[in-house]
Amino acid sequence: MRILTRMRRIAFAASPSGLSFVLLSWILVLASSYAQNSSLSIGGKLKLNQTIISGGKEFELGFFTPRGSASNQRYLGIWYYNITQTVVWVANRENPIAADDSDAALVLSDNGDAVILDGSGKTVWSAGVSTPSPNGTFARLDDTGNFVITQASTGVPLWESFRHPTDTFLRDMRFSRNTTTKQALVWTSWKSATDPSPGQFSLGLDHNSSELYLWNGSVPIWRTGLLKGRTFTGVTTMSAFYIFGFNPETNGDEFSISVSPSFAGKMRFVLDYTGSIVEYRWNESSGKWFDYWGRPSNKCDSYNRCGAFGICDPSRSSICSCLPGFEQSSGGCARRIPVGCAGNSSSGPGSDSSGFLTIPAVKPPDQALWIRSIQSKDDCQAVCLNNCSCTAFAYAPDLECMIWTGRLLDIQQFPSPGNGVDIYLRLDRSELENKKPKPWKVAIYVVISTIVAICCAIFFYFMWRHRRKPRESTKEEEKRESTAYRPCSSMNSCSVSFDTILPNKEGEETGQGLPLIDLGTVRDATSNFSNENKLGEGGFGPVYRGKLPEGQEIAVKRLSRSSGQGLEEFMNEVKLIAKLQHRNLVKLVGCCIEEQEKILIYEYMPNKSLDAFLFDKKLIPQLDWGKRFRIVMGIARGLLYLHQDSRLKVVHRDLKASNILLDATLNPKISDFGLARIFGADQSQVNTCRVMGTYGYMSPEYAMEGRFSIKSDVFSFGVLVLEIVSGKRMTRFQHEELNLNLLGYSWKLWKEGKALELLDPSLDGQCNEDEVMRCIHVGLLCVQDEATDRPAMFSVVQMLGSAAANLYEPQMPAYSRRRHLLESDTSSTDGDPRFQSINKHTITIVEAR
Ligand code: AMP
Fold first, then answer.
1. Which of 812, 831, 837, 832 has its CA nearest to residue 731?
2. Is the CB of 109 under 6 A from ligand 1?
3. Most CB atoms within 10 A, among 106, 277, 455, 629?
4. Is residue 336 assigned to a domain?
5. Residue that terminates a domain, selected from 109, 132, 164
6. Does 656 sit in the ligand 1 pocket, CB within 6 Å?
7. Are residues 341 and 482 in the same domain?
C-alpha cells in the first residue's frame, strides 16, 4: 500500500497532461499488480493456479503437489522462488485439496483469518485468527519466507507461519518456548518424501533448558546438549565449523534461540522423514542445494546408547563402556562401591566418604539441574556434596553450575578437550584412591624410573656410538650430518619439533605423546630394512614389516629421499594422524627422524591393502559380498569422521584401494595421509597449482582446475565403491567396443536397468541385491561431474545404511568415456607437459595457472 501511495504521488507531481494520465494509469496497474502479487487484503483470494511472491522474489506461496507424488492433491505451501520445488512450509498438511477442485482457494476472511476453502465452501484449514477490528488487515509473504497476517491499525502481526513451522528451519526463525506454560515451538518431519502430513519425528526446545531435542514420537533420539556460549555442548564439530553462533534471548515470557549463520547464501535446516536434521546450502554457481551438515551422524549420537552410567565412544570398536567406578550389571552399569553420604549433616560438606573424578570432554549427561549464582567450581562441588542424590557436577563459566541427581544418561566421549564439558563424577573415595597412588608408591616409582632411564640412556648412548662408527669415515658425511642430523634426544616426541616447522593452522596443540622411536630400534625391528620384510611400496617410499622389542607388530614406512614427500608432507601426515582416532583410520604408533631418515611407524595390518585382495584372482574369493559391503561402510564411516566428526575437517586427497588397509578381521582402515589437508572452519574449497593424487580417483575439478574439497574425496570414494562392487580396477578397465571406462560402463548398465550386471562375476551372484544396488546407486552419485551434485559423506553413510533411504537419480558421471588421462597409472607425462608423475601410483600434476 505504501508503494502504491508513493507511486501515486510521483505521478501527480508530473504535469497534468495526457502523457501523465497515461503514465499514472500505467503506474497504478503496475502498483496494483505488485500489491496483488505480494499480499492478500481482506476478501482477497488465492486460487489453485495463483501464487504470491515475496517483494524481493525470494519465496513464493501457493498450492503445490509434492514432487514425485503420484497423488492428485494440492497443499498450500511456501517454497523458494525460481528454484526447483523446495518447500519450506505447508499449511493443510493433513487435508489436501483435490487438484481438480478449481473453486478451492486461500481466502483472507472478513475477521482477518487466512482460510483454505474447498469448492463446496468447507473450511479445510485456518490460521485461527479472529480480530475485532479487521479493517486494513492484510497477509503478506516476506522475503524471509514468513507468511504474516498483520493488523494495519497497529502494525502488530496477528499470525506468522514462522510460529507454526513444519519441517524446515529458515535462517530468520527462532526456536522458542513460553517460560510460563513451557509450550515450545515444534518442527515435525513429513511422513515421506512425497507426503507432507506430520511424520513421526519432531524437533524443539526442551521444556526447561536451552537444549534442543529430536524425538521419535515421544521418545528422545538425539539432543544437542546445553548451549554454552554460542555453541551446543553435545555437538562435536560445532566450535570448529559452526561458529555462526546460536543466540539465546529471553523476552517477556518467551525464551528463544536464533541463529547467526556465517554463510551468507540461502540455507535451511530440514528435519527429514528419516529422522535426520540436515543443513542444506545453496550453491549459486551450480544452481544446486548441497547437504552441508547433518545429525545424528554416529552410533553414539543416538540417545542414551550405552544406558545409565554408560559412556559411548564412537572411535572405539566396542563403543559402550561403563563410567569409571561402575561395572556392567543387568540393564546397564551399576556402582561398584556405594557412596557413603553425609549430605547436609552437621558435620558439613565433604565429611562423607565421596570424592570426584574428572571425566574430560564429554557430552554432558541429560537432565542437568542448573544451580544459579554459583561463582566457582568449589562452590558447585559443595552443592553436589550437600545433596546425597547428586551423582556428578560440572562447572564452566558459560554454563555456571550444573548438577545431576540420580542416573547419568546419554554421555558421549568427544575426541578432544575443547569439545563438550568436563564433568566431575561422584565416587567413593576408595575408588579414587585406586586411581591416585599413595605418596610412598609414587616416590618408589620415581626412583626406579629414574634409575632405569639413566641405564637406558647409557646403553643407548653406547649403542649409538657403536652403530655410527663406520659411517663417520668420510668427511663428506661428517659435513652432511652436522647440518642435517637431528638427534632424537633433543626431542621428547615427534610433535615437539613439528610445530616449529609447520605452523599450526588450527591454533591447536599437536598430537602430544606420539613416541619417537630411535633409528636403531627401527633397524632392528625390520632386520635393517631387509627385502624379505618389505610389504610394498607406496608413493613416498617402501613399507617394511617389523616387530618392536615388546612384541608389537609394526609397519615401517621409510620415506625415500628421492620421493616427492618432503619434510612438509611427512610432518603433515604425523600431525594429522596423531590427532585423529577412529576404528577406520590406521593408527600411527610412532615416528623417527634421524640421520636424514624420515620414518613413520604404523600398527601392522596383516591383510595389507584392499587392492591386494580386490585385484588378485587368488585372494578375491575371500571377499564375499558381506565383507565387501562392510568394507564399503567402514571406509564411508572413516571418511565421514575425517570430513565432519573429528575435531578437524580433513580432506584426504588420495583415497584409493591401495590406501585402504585391512586388519585381521578385514576391517578397513584409511591410510596414507601424506597429501591430506586440514580445512578451516568455513573453508569449503581450496585452489592449488600443485595437483597431487592418483589417476582415475581424482575428481574432474581437482585434476583439471586444482580445486579440491571434501567432495573430491567423495568422488574418489565413488570410484572405490564401483571397484569393490565390480572387482575391476578403475585405471585398467576398458570396455573395448564401447570405449567406456568403469564409470561410463557402470552408468550405461544403470541407464539400461541392468546395474546388477556390474557385480563381480567371482561372486557368482551370491549377494544381497538390495545392498549391491544401493552401492552402485551411491557410487554413481559420488562420481557426478559437478561437486555439488555429489552427496556429503553424511548422506552417503545414511543412504548406504538404510534400505528406506530416498536416493535421488544420478546423472551421467564424470569421465564416462575413457580418457587419455586415465590411460595409464604408470605413465609419467603422456606427452602432456602439464602431467608429471613422480611415481607409478601417486602423481603430481603441475598445472600452469
Ligand atoms: P603406502 O605408502 O601407505 O601407500 O603403503 C604402500 C603399501 O605398503 C600398501 O599398499 C600396503 O600393501 C603396505 N602397507 C602400508 N601400511 C601398512 C600397514 N600398516 N600394515 C601392512 N601393510 C602396510
1. 837
2. no
3. 106
4. yes
5. 164
6. no
7. no
Asked if residue 220 and residue 179 are part of one domain, the reply reads yes
The answer to whether residues 290 and 350 belong to one domain is no
504: three-class secondary structure by DSSP? coil
- Overall number of domains in the chain: 6
Encode pLDDT of 200-229 as tens digits. 999 999 988 889 999 999 999 999 988 887
The model's confidence at residue 36, banded by pLDDT at 50, 70 and 90, is very low
Q: Look at the alpha carbons of 68, 74, 78, 80 in this order and tell me if their dihedral is positive or negative.
A: positive
Q: What are phi and psi of 147, to 5 degrees?
A: -95, 120
Q: Which residues contact 496 (CB under 8 A, 6 or more apart)?
A: none
In a domain, 628, yes or no: yes
Q: Report the half-sphere exposure of 836 (CA within 13 A, side-chain side).
A: 9
The rounded distance, in Å, linking the Cα atoms of 607 and 645 is 27
pLDDT above 60 for 529: yes
Tell me how far apart the alpha carbons of residues 529 and 520 are, in angstroms, rounded to a whole number: 11
Our answer on whether the CB atom of 535 is closer than 6 Å to any ligand 1 atom is yes
* Contacts (Cβ under 8 Å, ≥6 apart) of 420: 225, 233, 234, 236, 361, 362, 363, 364, 412, 414
User: Known catalytic residues?
Assistant: 654
**Are residues 508 and 640 both part of a single domain?**
no
What integer pLDDT is reported at residue 437 of this predicted model? 57
pLDDT in tens, 348-405: 444 568 899 999 989 999 999 988 888 899 999 999 999 989 999 999 877 789 999 9
Mutate to test the pocket of ligand 1, among 543, 610, 662 (most ligand atoms within 8 A of CB): 543
Pair (127, 153) in one structural domain? yes
Candidate of 526, 535, 652 to mutate for ligand 1, largest count of ligand atoms within 8 Å of Cβ: 535
Count of Cβ atoms closer than 10 Å to residue 656 Cβ = 28
- C-beta separation of 615 from 509 below 8 A: no
Domain with 199 in it: what CATH number? 2.90.10.10
Asked whether residue 126 falls in the same domain as residue 227, the answer is: no
pTM to 2 decimals?
0.60
Alpha carbons 581 and 638: distance in angstroms, whole number: 10
Does residue 463 sit within a domain? Answer: no
Asked whether residue 639 is assigned to any structural domain, the reply reads yes
The per-residue pLDDT for range 49-59, each reduced to its tens digit, is 999 999 999 99
Kindly state the cell numbers that stand for 668: 578397513
Query: CA 281 to CA 266: how far, in whole Å?
Result: 6
> CB-based contacts of 600: which residues, under 8 Å, 6+ apart?
556, 557, 559, 570, 573, 574, 588, 591
Could you tell which of 559, 565, 591, 608 is best to mutate to test the pocket of ligand 1, judged by most ligand atoms within 8 Å of the CB? 608
Residues 379 and 332 in one domain: yes
Residue 219: beta bridge partners? 216
Q: 136: Cβ below 6 Å to ligand 1?
A: no
672 touches ligand 1 (CB under 6 Å): yes
Same domain, 25 and 108: no
Which atom of ligand 1 lies nearest, measured to the CA of 538?
2
Instruction: Give residue 659 CA to ligand 1 midpoint distance, Å.
Output: 7
- Residue 334 domain boundaries: 312-406+415-435
Q: Which three cell numbers stand for residue 766?
A: 551370491
Question: Residue 262: what pLDDT?
Answer: 67
